[in-house]
Design goal:
The complex is a heterotrimer of chains A (about 190), B (about 260) and C (about 375).
Chain A lengths: L1 E9 L4 H14 L3 E6 L9 E9 L13 E4 L2 H7 L8 E5 L13 E5 L1 H8 L5 H10 L7 H11 L8 H19 L9
Helix pairs in contact in A: 1-5, 3-4, 3-6, 4-6, 5-6
Chain B lengths: L30 H14 L6 E5 L14 E4 L5 H11 L4 E7 H7 L1 H9 L5 E6 L29 H4 L5 H6 L4 E8 L3 H19 L4 E7 L3 H4 L3 H15 L4 E4 L1 H4 L4
Parallel strand pairs in B: 1-2, 1-3, 3-4, 4-6, 5-6
Antiparallel strand pairs in B: 5-7
Helix pairs in contact in B: 1-7, 3-4
Chain C lengths: L3 E4 H11 L4 E4 L6 H13 L3 E4 L3 H13 L4 E5 L1 H6 L1 H10 L3 E7 L15 H6 L9 E3 L4 H18 L2 E7 H5 L1 E4 L27 E2 L6 H21 L3 E4 L6 E4 L2 H16 L4 E6 L1 E3 L3 H8 L4 E6 L5 H9 L5 E5 L8 H13 L9 H9 L1
Parallel strand pairs in C: 2-3, 2-4, 4-5, 5-7, 6-7, 11-12, 11-14, 14-15
Antiparallel strand pairs in C: 1-8, 6-13, 10-12
Helix pairs in contact in C: 1-2, 1-7, 3-5, 10-13, 11-12
Classes of the chains: A alpha/beta (about 190), B alpha/beta (about 260), C alpha/beta (about 375).
Chain lengths: ~190, ~260, ~375
């Protein structure tokens, strides 16, 4: 088993942290995992991205040209990475930040108004967790429960007061994705 | 009859901080005087067993052969950085650098300024003879306006080659420097003053007061192209007006030291 | 100990601390700055020396000074900064004292960029500073390996009184992976018989220097250094093999390029093609004998690097023209994708290859077509 997840958006949208949370969850499940940020030329213009690879054996490349899973939080990253998605892949796009629908019919696209949902929960900073929750609906490798546990295990104690709102954000994203795709919870199968 | 061998009659001998070898310096060069003053102060302060010296690149490159202490040999200009590395891991050792004007004021400008800026608790003995000695008499940052060298054959033209750098005055401006003075080695009275300054600088380090430096105006008869005696006179008449013999910085803590 | 998700740069910094690092001198430069930042906090809290130097030139000379006293000392930088350190590295080599340098390489030449690259292979392995000397060069490809090699580097440096470089690329520095750090080692200040630390009333004075003004003495010093190097060559070759037992085609790559190649090699194996991977872990000394043996049974080699073909020269040296050696490189801060290496492997395993003296010619044509 190997699954690559690309996460991209503006700096400040919690792109790198979203990837780390996924990496922590994979690590706690005993998987091999790599997390690598873009810190090179792509950093300019305020976009950030990271790639998480989850596998059962020693991981080769930490990067992938055609990701099977992605979270894209803004329009520039949607435009850049949608065409690169692996056929049959899952793409979560932040509908709050893009003004167009999907161009690809051979992938599953989940449109989540992550900014609005985060604001409803009470903190705009939860945008990334809403999107992560949405991806989990289609990511059999990591369950929602495993991700919540990872947050609790690895968030420093002083931030634990933020756990309930993070859980709520994950839950809302997850449910939105299930409604939209008709996928059976936690299976990634429609 | 007067017995010169009786210990109570000995008034002058090789300092114990010296090794028993002859130096390689040219006749009339004042490096030997500067070395001796350092050795005498090391003896007086009983520092030889805990001293690590840092030799420069320049005429004093072999300084490590003459002092009976541990020594390392730095790259050109980097002695203050090397001394920093030593002092930071062995703060209870006594660490001094011995640097010429090409080493300290030219290639090693960054290292000396930042060592002073950090207030590194080291002592720098700075030999200013207004010329590059080892490479054969080229212009130094300290070369006087109009002074002829092999690389300023018509005399240092300030329009083209700039002005001499007064390192002690510059370094004295740094908050990390505790004691920065300029002395000269051109006559016995000034040599005595120079020794006192070296003692004060070493005491400043032993008292943990931060960066200390003694600039010593020195002669280079070989590359100046005049006799040793003429050199002493030239230093007095030409160098001192440009490089006044002053206390550029004596911090109050240094002023309060009793030794 | 349990594994933690840790960034390569932080992992190397903390591994050095736990291996007994007593002094660190460095200067900020991307993509290694997290090493300096981690140590800025850790070293003072442990009562150890940390100085942010005014330049890489000063940093390496501070390392030189501290190394003369016999303590475990390190500096870290990235390509342009390491160029500035070459003077000090040559002096340290000439003085025959231990010191550790981590180079988290970035794209060049010149100011280049801050993306991952491997273009300092020649500088580290074959040159760098002036004079004849050979650092030990270790190239991690994962965070765990970066930790293990950092710890090893201090032992090797002391064992041989030699420079040890960790040649990591930006990916290894910036990547996070689950990894296990070693236990904290108590600081033991060894009483080396060469260290300059003050006579202390116990011994004759010592001098540490790289100057041997009489050429015959310098010649003897060079013979001594060459002897040390030959011992290192015998003892310290390190590499990792993947699917090489029955391999007909051999990929050679180090660091990040090596692990990216692993993905492509696996894909070829999945298709039933007998491709294997040799990943040199020590770049200096280099596994010449391993490649020599592989060349006696392989049909062709593919060297994959994040540069214009530097390690390639060493592979060619070992293959000695017996079989074709092909090259795929991405210079300038580009990281190859497995798919691109896979494409190369498909080409190589399906065409009649010629033995050429410089595979870079055809490579450049393919890359710029």
């Amino acid at each position: 088993m190997q699954k690559e997840i690309l996460i991209a958006g503006f700096g400040g949208q919690g792109v790198l942290f979203a990837g780390q949370v996924l990496a922590y969850a994979a690590m706690d499940l005993g998987r091999e995992v790599t997390w690598i940020p873009s810190y090179g030329p792509e950093m300019r213009g305020g976009t950030a991205n990271c790639t998480v690879v989850i596998a059962d054996e020693e991981i080769g490349s930490p990067l992938v040209e055609n990701p099977p899973a992605a979270i894209l939080l803004n329009l520039p990253s949607y435009d850049k990475y949608e065409p690169l998605m692996q056929k049959g892949g899952v793409l979560v796009v932040n509908a709050s930040m893009v003004d167009r629908g999907p161009k690809r019919a051979d992938i599953i696209t989940i449109c989540v108004a992550a900014n609005e949902i985060a604001e409803e929960i009470g903190d705009r900073k939860l945008t990334n967790m809403v999107a992560v929750g949405a991806l989990l609906a289609c990511l059999p490798e990591i369950s929602l429960g495993a991700l919540k546990a990872a947050l609790k295990n690895h968030l420093p104690e002083r931030h634990h007061k933020l756990l309930p709102s993070n859980y709520a954000a994950l839950q809302r994203g997850y449910e939105t994705a299930l409604e939209q795709t008709g996928i059976a919870a936690g299976t990634g199968i429609r | 009859m007067f017995d010169i061998k009786k210990p109570e009659n000995i008034i002058y001998q090789r300092p114990r901080a010296f090794t028993e070898v002859s130096t390689h310096y040219c006749p009339g060069c004042t490096h030997g005087v500067a070395h001796r003053l350092i050795a005498e102060v090391l003896d007086e302060m009983k520092l030889t067993e805990k001293t690590i010296g840092v030799a420069p690149v320049g005429c004093a490159v072999f300084a490590y052969n003459y002092f009976n202490t541990d020594f390392v040999e730095a790259a050109h200009g980097r002695a203050p950085a090397m001394a920093t590395g030593i002092k930071r891991v062995m703060p209870d050792r006594f660490v001094f650098t011995y640097q010429g004007d090409g080493d300290l004021a030219s290639i090693g400008m960054a290292e000396i300024m930042h060592a002073a800026g950090r207030g590194e608790n080291i002592t720098v003995i700075f030999i200013n003879n207004a010329i590059y000695g080892m490479t054969g008499g080229q212009m130094a940052p300290t070369t006087l306006p109009g002074q002829k060298t092999t690389s300023s054959p018509r005399g240092r033209d300030v329009e083209l080659q700039g002005y001499p750098l007064r390192m002690s005055e510059m370094i004295a401006k740094m908050d990390g420097a505790s004691y920065v003075v300029r002395r000269s080695l051109h006559d016995p009275a000034n040599i005595r003053k120079a020794k006192k300054a070296i003692r004060t600088a070493f005491e400043a380090q032993v008292h943990g007061l931060g960066f200390s430096m003694v600039e010593l105006l020195s002669t280079c008869p070989t590359n100046w192209g005049i006799t040793p005696v003429e050199s002493l006179k030239w230093l007095e008449e030409h160098m001192i007006p440009v490089y006044p013999l002053v206390d550029c910085k004596v911090s109050s803590a240094v002023g309060d030291m009793r030794f | 100990m349990t594994k933690e998700l840790i960034k390569g740069n932080v992992a190397m910094a903390e591994a050095a601390v736990r291996a007994g690092l007593e002094a660190y001198f460095g200067y900020p430069i991307t993509p290694q700055t997290e090493v300096l930042e981690h140590l800025a906090r850790r070293m003072p809290e442990l009562g150890r020396a940390f100085v942010q130097a005014e330049s890489e030139v000063a940093a390496i000379n501070m390392v030189y000074g501290a190394a003369c006293t016999g303590v475990r000392v390190m500096t870290t930088s990235s390509s342009p900064g390491v160029s500035l350190m070459q003077e000090g590295l040559s002096y340290i080599a000439g003085t025959e004292i231990p010191a550790v340098l981590i180079n988290v390489m970035r794209g060049g030449p010149g100011l280049g960029n801050i993306a991952p690259a491997q273009s300092d292979y020649y500088q580290a392995v074959h040159g760098g500073g002036h004079g004849d000397y050979h650092p030990i060069v270790l190239a991690p490809s994962s965070v765990q390996e970066a930790i293990d090699l950092t710890v090893l580097s201090f032992d090797l440096a002391e064992k041989y009184r030699n420079l040890v470089f960790i040649l990591a690329d930006g990916s290894v520095g910036q990547m996070m992976e689950p990894a296990e750090l070693p236990e904290m080692r108590p600081l033991i200040r060894k009483d080396w018989d060469w260290a300059v630390n003050g006579k202390g009333g116990k011994r004759e004075r010592r001098i540490l220097t790289s100057i041997y003004i009489d050429p015959p003495a310098e010649e003897q010093a060079n013979y001594r250094m060459q002897k040390t190097w030959q011992t290192i060559q015998k003892n310290e070759v390190r590499y990792k093999e993947y699917y090489l037992d029955d391999a007909e085609y051999v990929v050679v790559g180090f660091g990040t390029a090596g692990r990216v190649a692993l993905s492509a090699v696996r894909a070829m194996r999945h298709n039933g093609v007998k491709v294997g991977l040799l990943r040199p872990v020590a770049l200096s000394p280099y596994p010449f004998e391993v490649i020599d043996e592989l060349a006696s049974r392989a049909k062709a080699f593919l060297v994959v690097e994040m540069n214009q073909g530097q390690m390639l020269s060493d592979v060619q040296l070992a293959v000695k023209g017996r079989v074709p050696v092909e090259f795929y490189g991405r210079p300038g801060g580009m990281v190859p994708f497995p798919e691109q290496i896979l494409k190369e492997l498909k080409r190589i395993t399906s065409t009649d290859l010629k033995i050429v003296s410089d595979p870079r010619v055809a490579w450049l044509e393919r890359m710029t077509a």
